[in-house]
Model the fold of this input.
Amino acid sequence: MQGKLFADVEELYLTHTGKPYRSHYPLNYSWYLNAYVNGEPGSEQIENDPEHELVGTPETTYDVWLDIVALSPSLYVYVTNADTWYFEGDRIHLSNVPYHHVHVDYWVLAADYDENDLIYAVYRLVDEQDRYEPSADFAVVFNRSVPGDFASDGHIDLQDYVQMAAAMTGPGTSQPDAELADVDYDGDDDVDLRDAAQFLRCFSGPDEHPDPRCAE
Done:
């Protein structure tokens, strides 16, 4: 093995591009499409990064694909380069385009859209030539932060833990603050030890992004 494939997820949430959130991408309503859509992010190989540079010839000594590991039920993925719709379990070919640059559109039909839903896609980079190990799973989150990310900074860490402690009501007592009630993971109208255990499963620390599947 040459090494392990690496996804620079921090590139997804750079704030200098004018996006208003650090934790997720908004889905915007299109009356023309009658859907909530977002045209970013896609995939691109970072130039001038010797630590993670791919060595060899694309499609010969390595052949990188983007596996769609999981999609939230209402989300549709369209890749402009390939003029193709993709679904959970499909894979998108990266090594057959320059710099692995693919542009991805994300759709949720208006009839399926609920602003309270957590909408996400989970990916993994793989090399069909087996020269590189697959990357760790990584996610793109839409519409809202993963529950428990009170700071909406794309991480669930000790700063959020303080807020989680403040949200605790105990069993049978509802949390009146809508923001704090966001961590009622089991939907039983209180925030108790069961929800605290779920929060810990979502805990990512200050340097990683939470897996949105942790909230299911």
Notes: The first strand starts at residue 3 and ends at 4. The radius of gyration is 19 Å. The chain has a mean pLDDT of 90. The chain has two helices and eleven strands.
